[in-house]
Amino acid sequence: xxxxxxxxxxxxxxxxxxxxxxxxKGNPAKGLVLLAxxxxxxxxxxxxxxxxxEGAFERHIAYDIGIEPLTRQLSAALDAPAxxxxxxxxxIDPNRGEDDPTLIMKISDxxxxxxxxPIAEEExxxxxxxxxxxxxxxVSQTIAEVAATGGRAPLVISLHSFTPAWKGVxxxxxxxxxxxxxxxxxxxxxxxxxxxxxxxxxxxxxxxxALRGDTMYRHCMAPGIPHALIxxxxxxxxxxxxxxxxxxxxxxxxxxLNAMPALHAYKxxxxxxxxxxxxxxxxxxP
Length: 286
Hints:
The chain is α/β, with parallel strands linked by helices. 27% of the residues lie in helices and 15% in strands. It has helices at residues 67-78, 121-150, 186-195, 215-221, 240-258; strands at 21-24, 32-36, 82-85, 107-108, 111-112, 155-162, 165-166, 169-170, 175-178, 201-203, 227-233.
């Protein structure tokens, strides 16, 4: 399995592409896995920015600003394996189920995406096969390796960022914890984030964490793996100083959570999105 975002790897049939994921090696015995679905804003050259101006790829519509360096620094600080998505979510969103209508966006925050509309079924399947599915295979393999090494469930933390304002309304939260219906990692995480008293923490705000088929549903909710999704406001991690400050804030909190035996046990919780179906379970329960 490739572990780097290589822009020079030749594809089959003469097409150029790069690896859709990067795996950062860590110590799997630690029992912790970091994920960054929207780490990067890259596209293979043949997609030519999907018809959008270059500036669109510096916006949140293309990736989660600040999350790549934050994930790299947390991985190093915690010696934890991490999986990063290497393609822009404008191409296809790895944090959506394959049957989600927002998997390939035609319009994103007011920006029409010419390369996504109209889109042929053949191209839809090509993006699934070249980007979405390999990324999730990398996530599955990394989680399985960590579980096998420690002989216990890993703790999985997914990292994202959100905009300081939406539709002209400022967002008061500095960070947020999103979740579906498994509170095991969520409650101690929120408690520790709030303990310093200097930040406002959203509990399923500004988004609800229950999304059928998304990364946490697929890799954690369905197989019963303890997890949480952390969102950090983008303006707080938009530069090196901000990333360093949030690494310093989050690393000891995640280390403390990872030391909790209760966060290394398999237990499936019912999803607020509805009953599980055959095939939902990505990593198998032991």
